[in-house]
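User: Here's a chain of 129 residues. Predict its fold as tokens.
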Amino acid sequence: MSQDVREYKVSGDHPFSLYQLMWTKSFDFESKSNRVEFAWAMLVHFVIFAVFITFSHIEMTMGITELGIIGSSIFVVYFIFSYVPSISLMRRRLRDVGRSGANLWLLWLPFAGWVALAVLLFSKSVETE
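Assistant: Prediction complete.
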């Protein structure tokens, strides 16, 4: 059993509390985030994104353009407000695996960069002395 999973079970954190932690540490680029904290926060984040996109798509295909525009607008506002907390969480996770925040530039390389960054983000934590 990995260290991250044991910490998660002992702390008793709920996935939504880990997601909330992403928001409360929005401007904390110096501390670290373990693999479980990162994974649950990002999973909840992507589920919210998927819900917004699905509802916007359904509303637009049903011809309810007013609701589709409102749904799309809410999605864009959520994306804008969640950008800094997401980057901050990824930066903290990279610090935990012993990598530089400069690795976030991999986000700009389609597919290969995303895969490489995902491998780094889900790597095992580095023990510090």
